[in-house]
Amino acid sequence: xxxxxxxxxxxxxxxxxxxxxxxxxxxxxxxxxxxxxxxxxxxxxxxxxxxxxxxxxxxxxxxxxxxxxxxxxxxxxxxxxxxxxxxxxxxxxxxxxxxxxxxxxxxxxxxxxxxxxxxxxxxxxxxxxxxxxxxxxxxxxxxxxxxxxxxxxxxxxxxxxxxxxxxxxxxxxxxxxxxxxxxxxxxxxxxxxxxxxxxxxxxxxxxxxxxxxxxxxxxxxxxxxxxxxxxxxxxxxxxxxxxxxxxxxxxxxxxxxxxxxxxxxxxxxxxxxxxxxxxxxxxxxxxxxxxxxxxxxxxxxxxxxxxxxxxxxxxxxxxxxxxxxxxxxxxxxxxxxxxxxxxxxxxxxxxxxxxxxxxxxxxxxxxxxxxxxxxxxxxxxxxxxxxxxxxxxxxxxxxxxxx
Length: 403
Description:
Blueprint: E1 3-7, E2 19-24, E3 29-36, E4 38-48, H1 54-58, E5 66-70, E6 74-75, E7 94-96, E8 99-100, H2 113-119, E9 123-126, H3 130-140, E10 143-149, H4 157-166, H5 176-179, E11 185-187, E12 195-200, H6 206-214, E13 217-222, H7 228-233, E14 236-241, H8 252-263, E15 268-271, H9 273-281, E16 285-302, E17 307-320, E18 327-328, E19 335-342, E20 348-353, E21 358-361, H10 376-390, H11 396-402
Parallel strand pairs: 4-5, 5-7, 6-8, 7-9, 12-13, 12-14, 14-15, 15-21
Antiparallel strand pairs: 1-4, 2-3, 2-10, 3-9, 4-10, 11-13, 16-17, 16-19, 18-19, 19-20, 20-21
Helix pairs in contact: 8-9
């Protein structure tokens, strides 16, 4: 993520007088008004189709390095509160909205959205034709962009475009260290305790941690640079890879770590970035989508049940794999099959290993702000771990099955 120094100034929503301009790397320009912090910010411009849940979107670490455009026209109506945040800060590189709320109207609100953006130093822009920008990205693909607000909006247009084009592309970026915890954090299990779960924090959301703890896991959130010895040290019953930003092809260390986990025959579940990393650990390729999937209204087919789920997505990369029938893992981990398929564009949305205890999905089953169609996947993970535990030598159930 590249963010130039910003100046934090008070804002007044639509009444803000400071100008701002959105500049895309192809030279497209959109003039609007400053929103949030003033200054310059750079990143990959992407759009999210969610009609609700802007607070969860902003605090999702998977959006690090990206300037997020909300396709919903009215943003900020319910303000911000301290209960619905998904992580310790706002992670988007920049924010684009059409009509920011002038008045916050919700009993849970603790501050306005533009104040929250300013506090975290997030440069935004309002008052532009977000539909036009979205249609352009859908045609031309996600691209680098910059928001220049306040004094920066008056910079020479050629200079602004040059700054945008000098910014790094998302392809090839490893952003895990930017969003991960620095030291391990533990959340106790709730209900019947199943055991310790090693969660590699590549940008984990709080709702994920809560869902795992609710299934009886003592959740150990580990830094993204954890080693296999760090994982073995907590004597885990399973390993989980979280969502996160960046290009999976640039995460060689995480892929090698996952192969060590699979070699240990530890049950594994991955979501979003974790799905892409499982694919690469199994020997599959990944590729960048033209404009990605971001929003809370994406239809996915669960091939196991035949059920169509409406799901929450936030990803710009996907796994390359045959959609029909099992195939052999190129890396030697036995048979694998695509378990879920996106119905909009036939993108791989899930993987299931048939000979080792491992599966993953490309979307977000925790889905804070909804929908909750895919929440059952946490139960599926818990059941897989129980079954694996009960069939290991030395367990009571294993002894019974041998008698």
